[in-house]
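#struct-queue
[09:14] JT: dropping the first one here, sequence first, then the structure tokens:
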Amino acid sequence: MSGPARPAFCARLENVSKLFGSFAALRQVSVELEPGKCYVLIGENGAGKSTLLRILAGLLRPSFGKILVFGEGEPHDARDRIGYMSHAPMLYDELTGVENLLYFSKLYPDRDCLAPSAALRQVGLDPDLARPLGQYSQGMRQRTSLARVLLAQPELLLLDEPFSNMDIESAGQMVELLAGFRHSSRTIVITTHQREMAAPIADYVLALKAGRVASFDPGRPTL
């Protein structure tokens, strides 16, 4: 006998709006995210990209509308399966990469986490590097931040501006890493001002304008 069918979507938003006082950051957003695909969110500052990502992560609740993840319920009911990388690194400059990840792994006592050294290797960093994070390049810092998110082995990766302040070579390395995660059936949602950076892994490109969906088009992934 076969097991239960997988849901046709990883996340579904139905007419989601988010108000901050009288300001509408999101306006009636409806979209479905398929499992194992990469979605790139683009738009100007204030378009609602980060707000949408935080709602998917369960860090914000919509003012109106409905959101379901993994066919089970709201995002806060599935936080063990969601990984969120904020625009801020959320790391300690005085600690090494391994020390940072050891600290964060203790925040998940009930999860089957990766070993910090394994998480760092997954993002192409040497776990034996003794330098404190404050001496890392921006690309290394971003990869360490991604390793922090990978500790809990999430199925849905939400990445807010992962290419921020990175040079072309470092951004290319990040894209190759994300391509590998996409091929491992993780769903990835990326916000970025640098659409061309994410183009090689974008299955879909979602453009927001003033909190509304302006377009939702197939990408042309090459990795």
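[09:21] JT: and here's the second one, same format:
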Amino acid sequence: MRTFGSQEYEFRSAAETMPEDRYSFRPVVPVAAGNAATSVGPTQLRSFGDQVKHVACANFAFAAELDGKTPPDNCENGGPNPAKTRAELLTYLRNSFAAMNASLNAITSKNMYDPIEGRYAGPNTRLGLAGTAIWHVADHYGQIVLYLRLNGIVPPASRPNPPELKDYPAH
């Protein structure tokens, strides 16, 4: 839980730091010979806002799988949630971390090796899925740090006095 809490802080604080007008920022990747453009892949990177939405959807998906529920569809491309604005995305992100925290806190020494099925991290165990969820946030945090730095912004977790997280309204 401590590791996931650290990932939550790093990712959410980075998402809160990016100005609204830069949520559409998308690094440009040159097309190499033989690479075909795809919706998301080597030649088409997600925008900053798309990264935030993807992580939020994935958190809800991992939480659903941990809870034995059906995860949202199409998290690879943002999922079904209609959030678009910075404020909506930050609320969606905050709520996704709350869902993951509740699901992770339900893991016990008695159920941590129970099998989990699901398209996002299955087949797995509860403990294995928890590790995947933590890794997933960390992976995308590493990506959005570059987005911040390409926009001249020092990530909050790299500052001498990191700011507190904000509490966006629930929807």
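[09:30] RK: nice, looked through the second one.
[09:31] RK: The chain has a mean pLDDT of 87.
[09:31] JT: good to know. The CA atoms of residues 91 and 168 lie 5 Å apart.
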